Amino acid sequence: xxxxxxxxxxxxxxxxxxxxxxxxxxxxxxxxxxxxxxxxxxxxxxxxxxxxxxxxxxxxxxxxxxxxxxxxxxxxxxxxxxxxxxxxxxxxxxxxxxxxxxxxxxxxxxxxxxxxxxxxxxxxxxxxxxxxxxxxxxxxxxxxxxxxxxxxxxxxxxxxxxxxxxxxxxxxxxxxxxxxxxxxxxxxxxxxxxxxxxxxxxxxxxxxxxxxxxxxxxxxxxxxxxxxxxxxxxxxxxxxxxxxxxxxxxxxxxxxxxxxxxxxxxxxxxxxxxxxxxxxxxxxxxxxxxxxxxxxxxxxxxxxxxxxxxxxxxxxxxxxxxxxxxxxxxxxxxxxxxxxxxxxxxxxxxxxxxxxxxxxxxxxxxxxxxxxxxxxxxxxxxxxxxxxxxxxxxxxxxxxxxxxxxxxxx
Length: 410
Ligand code: ATP
Ligand code: MG
What we know:
Layout: H1 18-34, E1 38-39, E2 45-47, H2 48-54, H3 60-64, E3 67-71, E4 74-78, H4 83-92, E5 102-111, E6 123-132, H5 137-153, E7 159-165, H6 169-183, H7 192-200, H8 211-217, H9 220-227, H10 233-248, E8 253-255, E9 267-275, E10 283-289, H11 293-296, E11 304-310, H12 311-318, E12 326-331, H13 335-347, E13 352-354, H14 361-371, E14 372-377, H15 380-385, E15 387-392, E16 398-402
Parallel strand pairs: 1-5, 7-8, 12-13, 12-14
Antiparallel strand pairs: 2-4, 3-4, 5-6, 6-11, 7-9, 9-10, 10-11, 14-15, 15-16
Helix pairs in contact: 1-5, 5-10, 6-9
């Protein structure tokens, strides 16, 4: 019979990959908890309208990439990102009544119907943080520190932080008008996506990856507009304050005026963290401030800022950590004694296996050296004397110890 294959753009995370995935998940819990963030898990499907309103219907995500289906005449969508879901939950659970800041973090699968390629899947995973209730730049600094320190804790160093300010809806309007003015003569040369972005969301033009469009955006008169300081005094003060925190804290960053981010809801601070060791899909983290989203989704007016990281991209930077060996393996031809010792070792918090098929002693030792770091040998003599021979399977050193001394010798 024909075998049923994995769907395009999806991947199994196999037992050998798990060391890396557990590492990423455990570090997320450890680092984000230090900042007072609590984990939240929201459903992987939500009302389609949540994403249309929450991510924005001029975005690629909503226009092209959603997995949408109908059930009982409801339009549902597999979440393409998790900010909208977290905001929905924040509102529905009245979290604005909690004392600010409310800091939440999440991890889990996201779904986007994209062309699969290296670093781009249709089901992928993100780990992210959202901080609600603080409009000051201290929150921006703290959120960027959470991202940077998480990546550091993973041991990832060759990364660069890019920063930009998109201003507020008022000052951005002035910028959009200027941008449209200067780009108008080039409209016929732009890709079809940019032609429609021109009307709907001209900022997104700067995010286009089509080479012909990029050639237009490097022209001097267009660069002059892009590089101009269009943001108003309040937005500028906020940005300067953030930059001074980052400078003082030794966070290296560069300003990228082309950084606009794919989502509609951002205002003021946006940032991305890129790796110098990934190919073209080199962004590992994207984030920004979204002060109007909670209100737009029907909640109390609540400023917020957050980020999301692609876990597959992090995993590929971390490479293989094939530390799947169990710590100990009991070698014995007495299955009852073997299972008793195995359970005793496990009860002491150390991983342990034994040969469930009771093969010959030599075969058991061979197996132990493949799967474990130490063999705990229980021969007839050891059993009679209530002792164990501990063999270090990497160095082949061995010694006989009392049962009570095993743990001091591992
Ligand atoms: P890109 O410009 O690469 O499409 P994006 O702006 O769509 O990125 P975000 O929505 O900001 O990405 O998501 C945050 C992070 O999630 C990205 O930086 C990336 O690491 C990861 N990511 C996004 N889409 C995918 C995907 N299809 N497959 C794997 N990882 C992804
Ligand atoms: Mg994308």
